[in-house]
Design brief:
Elements (H helix, E strand, L loop, with lengths): L16 E3 L6 E3 L3 E6 L4 E5 L8 E5 L2 H9 L2 H7 L5 E2 L1 H7 L4
Length: about 100
């Protein structure tokens, strides 16, 4: 009989992992906030993680979110859209120092 090498056991995941667009940290889906784009092309915060279409994630840290909202190039690439508008509500929520 031939001896076979034991296969290493796969580590169990605690849930789906997502990557923060700003800092590239991999975290559990529930530890990140989700952004989605409406049919009108407006970027909104998806609090319920239920809006249709493509989603993008960022850390709950306000620094990551502010970095993402300032550099919209990553958002354009993530959503595969060039005509993306960031809602004023998002800017008001995550505005720094005000």
């Amino acid at each position: 009989m031939l001896a076979t090498a034991a296969k290493p056991l796969k580590k169990r995941s605690t849930g789906p992992l997502r990557t923060c667009l700003a800092c590239h940290a991999k975290k559990a889906k529930n530890d990140l906030c989700r952004f989605a784009v409406t049919r009108e092309g407006v970027l909104v915060l998806d609090k319920a993680y239920r809006l249709d279409g493509r989603g993008a994630y960022a850390c709950l840290d306000s620094a990551c979110i502010q970095r993402l909202l300032r550099n919209t190039k990553k958002l354009h690439k993530a959503f595969r859209r060039q005509n993306l508008k960031v809602s004023e509500d998002l800017h008001a929520i995550f505005r720094s120092g005000e």
